Amino acid sequence: IMYDPDENVIRLLFQGAISKRDWINDFRFPAKLYKNQEHWFLVHRGFGDAWQSARDKIITELTEFILMIESSGDFDTPAAKIQIPGHSMGGALALLAAEDFRYQFNRPADEVVTFGSPKPVFGILSKRHFKKSAKSWKQYRFMYDGVTWCPPFIGYHNVTSNVIDKK
Known about the structure:
Oligomer: single chain
Strand content: 15-25%
Shape: globular
Low-confidence stretches: none
Number of strands: 10
Strand order of the largest sheet: 1-2-5-6-8-10
Largest sheet: 6 strands, mixed
Number of helices: 4
Mean pLDDT: 84
Order of helices and strands: EEHEEHEHEEHEEE
């Protein structure tokens, strides 16, 4: 979690797989129920489990960070924007974090930016639900990066078709 005072942006950053456990989660494809809530949504099991394992700590720290930043400003300063970037597996986690941010703070994140992210949600209804989690989505990928095509099964989606291929 970091704050850029020049842009008045709080960034919740997620990096790609770095541990053996991360790589195991990358290949745990079967979809699972995301949360026990009124409507059910499905996500990639490995990414869902990885997010759930860190979720409480991240949301608590983000809440404290937002309160600290916003209480240190004056009344003329608008609330800090929330940007959630992620790379590779971190892009999938950024999407799940954005949905949780919307749920916890009753507002969407301002922007989610992913680089080389796999497809973390399963089903068109899940995709529509998660898309509401941010005001703006930017998803970048290299067209020959196999990670961006995973899981390679019908039904898995990125949140937006706003995918930009750069050679």
